[in-house]
């Protein structure tokens, strides 16, 4: 069994939740989202994030706007929609329940 594959699948499982969480406080462009994820040691590549952002937008959870940049081409800033905020709130509750259950099963202290 390949442990790296299992670890990658675990990260993918929470990536949507993490991206929505990054956007809960303020709109961000893709590089900012990637930097935030990388700083949290959640290693992802652009090729994974761009399709996910598009899917979240198509599902009505995100919107975007273009903003001029002083250091290059215009940037696409993503933000949560009202539906996205509601969805994130539901995921937060589910994450808490899941995290508590995993800690209980694996005997980790909280």
TrEMBL record:
UniProt superkingdom: Bacteria
One Pfam family this sequence matches: PadR
Domain Transcription regulator PadR N-terminal: 19-89
Record PANTHER family: PADR-FAMILY TRANSCRIPTIONAL REGULATOR, TRANSCRIPTIONAL REGULATOR RV3488
Protein name: PadR family transcriptional regulator
Organism name: Flavobacterium hercynium
């Amino acid at each position: 069994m390949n442990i790296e594959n299992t670890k990658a699948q675990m990260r993918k499982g929470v990536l949507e939740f993490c991206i929505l969480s990054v956007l809960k406080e303020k709109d961000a462009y893709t590089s900012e989202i990637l930097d935030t994820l990388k700083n949290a040691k959640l290693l992802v590549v652009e090729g994974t994030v761009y399709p996910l952002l598009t899917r979240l937008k198509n599902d009505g959870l995100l919107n975007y706007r273009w903003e001029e940049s002083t250091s290059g081409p215009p940037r696409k800033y993503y933000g949560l929609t009202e539906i996205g905020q509601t969805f994130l709130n539901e995921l937060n509750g589910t994450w808490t329940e899941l995290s508590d259950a995993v800690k209980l099963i694996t005997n980790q202290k909280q």
